[in-house]
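Standup notes
- DV: blocked on the single-chain target, sequence here:
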Amino acid sequence: MTAEALVDVPQPAGASAPALIRVENLVKHFPAGIGQTVKAVDGVSFDIKPGETLGLVGESGCGKSTLGRLVMQLIPVSSGKVFLDGVELTRLRGEKLRQKRREMQIIFQDPFASLDPRMTVGDIVAEPLVNFRVMRGRKLSQRVQELLRIVGLNPNFNNRYPHEFSGGQRQRIGIARALALNPKLIVCDEAISALDVSIQAQIVNLLEDLQREFKLTYLFIAHDLSVVRHISDRVMVMYLGKIIEIADSVETYSSPKHPYTKALLSAIPIPNPKIQRGRRLVELSGEIPSPISPPSGCRFHTRCPIAHLPTPCADVEPPLEEKRDAHLAACHFSQDV
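- DV (later): unblocked, structure below
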């Protein structure tokens, strides 16, 4: 299906606040041999309001990280549009795009690979300020120490190198670097998945504190559904390059409208043996289809426990539409979930 044939996502009733980020029919296909393409992101539309945290969840390989990089314009789109504060990023080139990037930053998944081992922590945090010629000299040093203090690190550590820090401390350095230019949007690309559980809680609490203090907006990409529930205002579920459900966080976890979302939620362990033993897990049969040749109709129908075959599930792609107030889902039989 071409991007032109895709329709925009309907907006929730009463959603009057202008979106900070608006994505329309975003498509990213990667070449994969002669005549083949990987449909990593295939017609995605959503928005993020200022000060909101939008959680993005889904299995590995569904296109979450690719979507985050497309929003940041770190990789070019195949088609579609990305707007930041009403400005279409996908039309910008060169210096204009570079200047707009001051307003959006990313925290990477791997705190070990995302920091240059040859640079001191002070130089890493100062790099955005130097590149955009925001300040230099004593003011630059003071700003670096202030940023380290904000993320809970000793400002006197600015002359040390990344290998001298733990994983959690390295991720705090990455957060300090992301904050340097006072961005409006931060994409957290599985920013806690490589950390120990106790450190994950510290980083999540830090992100929440920073959001309140600096009025930040997050696109929070993660595998851990319990963390997403804790930090997110809304949750967006992705499957095989498509958004299949978007809803308020409480609504998503209490009343999912897509069978895939229900299966994901059933896999969250509950730290109470009595309750956990009595739970019924939703087991999905089969393997995830290849993004090179996704199934026709609903992409989930090959694994769906409530699919009606052969039609309409295998023949007609369900639109992402409102099932109840501000709760969008792409399922022909959402009433059966």
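- Follow-up: The radius of gyration is 21 Å.
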